[in-house]
């Protein structure tokens, strides 16, 4: 279990190393991008990096143990983000703001999950 905790933490940290993320999006296939928001993310390196950070954090959230009902709530929040992103269309400022808000929310969620897990296994 300690190894899993360490691996998840290292992956979360790696998501924020400058230059570690490619310019392309990770949460969807840019070759299949059809919607204006998807095309904008794929065409803009900064948005692509934000998408990579968001996708990595989302992966960490999905891997972490959660209390009953929390996984459904987390997926609902992700769906709401995707709707907000779609509402931005190709507006890069709007997309950046949506990604920044989602990344902040996911970072807080990961921090909380890690603290709960750490206490649960009596590591801290």
TrEMBL record:
Keyword Signal among UniProt keywords: yes
Taxonomic superkingdom: Bacteria
Keywords per UniProt: Signal
Endpoints of the signal sequence: 1-23
PANTHER family: LIPOPROTEIN LPRI
The protein's name: Lysozyme inhibitor LprI family protein
Lineage: Bacteria, Pseudomonadati, Pseudomonadota, Alphaproteobacteria, Rhodospirillales
């Amino acid at each position: 279990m300690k190894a899993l905790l360490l691996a998840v933490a290292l992956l979360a940290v790696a998501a924020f190393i400058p230059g570690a993320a490619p310019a392309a999006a990770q949460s969807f296939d840019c070759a299949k991008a059809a919607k204006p928001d998807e095309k904008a993310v794929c065409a803009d390196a900064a948005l692509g990096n934000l998408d990579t950070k968001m996708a990595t954090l989302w992966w960490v959230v999905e891997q972490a143990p959660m209390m009953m009902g929390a996984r459904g709530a987390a997926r609902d929040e992700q769906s709401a983000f995707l709707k907000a992103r779609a509402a931005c269309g190709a507006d890069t400022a709007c997309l950046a703001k949506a990604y920044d808000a989602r990344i902040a929310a996911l970072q807080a969620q990961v921090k909380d999950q890690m603290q709960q897990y750490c206490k649960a296994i009596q590591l801290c």
